[in-house]
C-alpha cells in the first residue's frame, strides 16, 4: 500500500512539474506513471552509489552538489523514458527541486491525514 501511495505522489508531482517548468514535457498520463516508476528505481539503486562516489565533493560543497546529482538523474530519466522530454540540464535541475518540494508537501499531507 505504501508503494502505491509513493508512486501516486511521485506521479502527481511529475505531472505538476511538467505543467510548471518550461523545458519539461510529458506526452501522456501513462508516461507520467512510467517516469515515476523509473525515477523511483534510479533513486533507490543508482543515486546512493553516485552519492557515495562523490562524497568528497558533497562534503566540500556542504551537500549542494547533491542538487546537481538529482538534476542529472532526472535528466537521465528523460533519456530512458520515451515521451518525457527535458530540453537541458537547467530545466531538469529546477524541475527536480520543484518535484522534491511538491512530493514532500503531498507526503506530509497524506501522513497527517492517516
Describe this structure in words.
The two termini are 13 Å apart. Strands 1-2 form a two-stranded antiparallel ribbon. 80% of the residues lie in helices and 5% in strands. It has one domain (2-113). The chain is mainly α and 114 residues long.
Cross-sheet strand order for the largest sheet: 1-2
Q: Estimate the strand proportion.
A: 5-15%
Which residues form runs of ≥5 with pLDDT under 50? Answer: none
Helicity level: over 70%
Largest sheet, in brief, is: 2 strands, antiparallel
- Alpha plus pi helix count: 5
In total, how many beta strands? 2
The number of domains:
1
Element pattern in H and E: HEHHHEH
Radius of gyration (CA) equals 14 Å
Mean pLDDT: 95
Distance between the termini: 13 Å
* Shape verdict: globular
How would you classify the helix and strand content by structural class? Answer: mainly alpha
Topology, element by element:
Elements: H1 2-20, E1 24-26, H2 29-53, H3 55-60, H4 65-80, E2 84-86, H5 89-113
Antiparallel strand pairs: 1-2
List keywords for this structure.
single chain, globular, 114 residues, 2 strands, 80% helix, mainly alpha, two-stranded antiparallel ribbon
Concise synopsis of the structure shown:
The chain is mostly helical and 114 residues long.
Amino acid at each position: 500500500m505504501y508503494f502505491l501511495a509513493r508512486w501516486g505522489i511521485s506521479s502527481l508531482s511529475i505531472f505538476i512539474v511538467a505543467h510548471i517548468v518550461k523545458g519539461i514535457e510529458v506526452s501522456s498520463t501513462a508516461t507520467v506513471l512510467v517516469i515515476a516508476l523509473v525515477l523511483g528505481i534510479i533513486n533507490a539503486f543508482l543515486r546512493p552509489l553516485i552519492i557515495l562516489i562523490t562524497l568528497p565533493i558533497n562534503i566540500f560543497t556542504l551537500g549542494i552538489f547533491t542538487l546537481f546529482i538529482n538534476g542529472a538523474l532526472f535528466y537521465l530519466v528523460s533519456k530512458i523514458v520515451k515521451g518525457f522530454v527535458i530540453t537541458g540540464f537547467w530545466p531538469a535541475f529546477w524541475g527536480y527541486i520543484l518535484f522534491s518540494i511538491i512530493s514532500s508537501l503531498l507526503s506530509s499531507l497524506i501522513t497527517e491525514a492517516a
